[in-house]
């Protein structure tokens, strides 16, 4: 398991995301204030092409 993000990082991501999933056409919110719960995972997006930023040859599609 990787390094856990700090609360500061989580707050910044929440603010920058507008509480919306980053996947195209997804309308899901990831913080549910009425339940004081987060249903999101923080991840790094990896490039699909070898010359792309953070390309990972071991990833699946």
Number of H/I helices: 1
Rg calc: 14 Å
The shape is: elongated
Gap from first CA to last CA: 21 Å
The ordered H/E elements are HEE
Task: Provide the domain count.
Answer: 1
Q: What is the mean pLDDT?
A: 79
| Percentage of residues in helical conformation | 10-25%
> Count of DSSP E strands?
2
Structural class: alpha+beta
Could you describe the 3D structure shown?
There is one protein chain. The protein has about 60 residues and is α+β, with helices and mostly antiparallel strands. It has one domain. Helix content is about 20%, strand content about 5%. It has one helix spanning about 5-15, and strands at about 30, 35-40. The protein has a two-stranded antiparallel sheet with strand order 1-2. Strand 1 (about 30) and strand 2 (about 35-40) form a beta hairpin. The longest helix has 11 residues, at about 5-15.
Which helices and strands, and how do they pair?
Blueprint: H1 7-17, E1 31-32, E2 37-38
Antiparallel strand pairs: 1-2
Highlighted features:
61 residues; alpha+beta; two-stranded antiparallel sheet; 1 helix; 2 strands
Gist?
Helices cover 18% and strands 7% of the residues. The chain has 61 residues and is α+β, with helices and mostly antiparallel strands. It has one domain.
């Amino acid at each position: 398991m990787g390094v856990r993000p700090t609360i500061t990082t989580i707050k910044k991501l929440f603010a920058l995301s507008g509480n919306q999933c980053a996947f195209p056409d997804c309308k899901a919110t990831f913080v549910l204030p009425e339940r004081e719960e987060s249903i999101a995972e923080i991840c790094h997006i990896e490039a699909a092409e070898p010359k792309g930023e953070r390309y990972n040859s071991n990833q699946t599609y």
